[in-house]
Amino acid sequence: MSVQKSFSWNSPPRPVQIALALFAIGLLIGVFRVLLKDFSSRPTAAIVGSIVILIIGSAWISGLYHSRNWLRWFTVAWVGGGLILTPWAVSKLNDWRQILMLWVQFATSLGTVVLLVVPGANRWYGRRRDS
């Protein structure tokens, strides 16, 4: 007799949880980078832009949490493109804080992409809900 682990829709598997946390950390670092760069010259635009980014990012994370497979693959493609462009973006920066934060974002993005395609994530995003 084989023993199967029960599958719960209440919460995603550990790799997906970590991927979502990394995605959120990268999002917050990005917002902080925008505020650091633009707040002194354009405070209103920096604040409004940051709020919009946080709203979109929150909806994005919610969609990933609720196992939207199309959004997972869009995330892998979008974030993967950002990873490819990171060296170019770093070459355009002069502020060491911005460079450091961009490399931290790179690390969180790489972790997000990898964790969204591991077998545990494939099972989470591949299953269909009956309800």
Structural features, described:
- With 131 residues, the protein is mainly α.
- It has one domain (14-123).
- It has helices at 14-38, 43-65, 69-91, 96-116, 119-126.
- Helix 1 runs antiparallel to helix 2 (43-65), helix 1 (14-38) runs antiparallel to helix 4 and helix 3 packs antiparallel against helix 4 (96-116).
- It is globular, with a radius of gyration of 17 Å.
- Mean pLDDT is 88; it is low at 1-7.
In short:
This protein is an all-alpha fold and 131 residues long. The chain has 5 helices and no strands. The chain has helices spanning 14-38, 43-65, 69-91, 96-116, 119-126.
Approximately how much helix is present in the residues? Answer: over 70%
Distance between the termini: 29 Å
Helix count from the secondary structure assignment: 5
Average pLDDT reading: 88
Task: List low-pLDDT spans.
Answer: 1-7
- Compressed to H and E, one letter per element, the order equals HHHHH
Q: Based on DSSP secondary structure assignment, what is the total number of beta strands?
A: 0
Topology summary:
Elements: H1 14-38, H2 43-65, H3 69-91, H4 96-116, H5 119-126
Helix pairs in contact: 1-2, 1-4, 3-4
Which features does this protein show?
131 residues, mainly alpha, 5 helices, 0% strand, disordered N terminus
